[in-house]
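Batch job 17 of 40 flagged for manual review because the log was empty.
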Amino acid sequence: MRTLVIADDYPWPVTSGSRIRLEIVLRGLGACGATDLFSILPSDRADIGPPPDVSGLARVATVGFDARGGSGWTRVVRAFRRSTPYGLSIGDGPEVQRVLTRFATGNYDLVWLFGIRPWVQVGRYLAAPTLLDLYDLNDRKIAARERLRPDVEPRGSGRLRQAAGRVVATEEVRRWRMLQRRAARQSDMTVVCSALDAGRAVAIGLPRVDVVPNGYPDVAEPLGRRSVGTPPTVLFLGTLRYPPNADASRFLVDDVVPILERLVPGVQVRLVGRAAPALSNLDRPPGVSLVGPVDDVSGELARADLVVVPLRFASGTRLKILEAFAHRIPVVSTAIGAEGLGAEDGVHLLVADSAPDLATACARLLEDEELRHSLTDNAHRHFLANFRSDVIERDVARVARAAAGPTTAPDS
């Protein structure tokens, strides 16, 4: 079986959840036969490392595109093109297609489209059986963000801005759902990362939906520690430029931390990941450190007494929770942060949504050693049974063979 992966990301170095998923996809497809990777990336992306030794990975290529959204006139045209979401940067599709045509030589048994953007740029022109990997459902993310708008009715011009924002968000949700339906109906199969997202995808009209969960590599020596260190340390890890993580960072620092500091004097909160300049005021030593990106997260995981996931809107499932489960680090999360993982409140992690409840849950896990041990033991078993990367790789191979069709030889 010969597969072409066209992705909206490039997995190396592996520094984000989508890159972890993409690498697992490549390893799973490599078990089926030769696999080529064609990554379509913003032109300004600089962190492109050499591929490691991945069995079955035959060729790799990248192509850049201008992700800035084009000129003002281009934005106006796209605003009136009711089939294209405002927030979808696609750049110069014809040029991407020309580069792909030179790269993708010979016949493929399957094309795996990693993300919706590759389908928009090139996927609709492909002749091979196609699998669409919707690891993110953007309509869900926007709808959840809108529910965060304050209930207080603004006055004057603020009321007009709020009304306009609601109109734009409603239209953006409609456009994303329409685009997802079109892409799914023109693909042979669609995969999402949880049974919860599968139900949502079917509900908005996507056909032939299957599940390939997110995963994380098994850890020979977990970095979590049994006892709380001095000072107690809380970690929020992720790409802080990503809007859900940026919002979660502000919510954590502005609303949760002041309560937590009263409950656990001397607690340290570390925000680790690439952040936008607008978040610079979240660096508030000694209690809060905006660490920024790190080359190796193992040092941050080793010093963390718990991982907090204070997301208030999101889609997909959180690799940062699976990472903590794999390393036996206790987790406190909002309900939306933990959704789709089958993790139970009080069994695998603690779930809380309001700032006081999140702070109280963090304090419990920093003070109750027996609870810490119980949660991390259960979470680690849950991870090993359901989300270890080799388990997910078998799911990748299963759906790939099903999408390619019964006449495809498994290792051709």
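Reviewer: the log was empty due to a logging misconfiguration, but the result itself is present. The domain at 233-386 is CATH 3.40.50.2000 (Rossmann fold). Unflagging and moving on to job 18.
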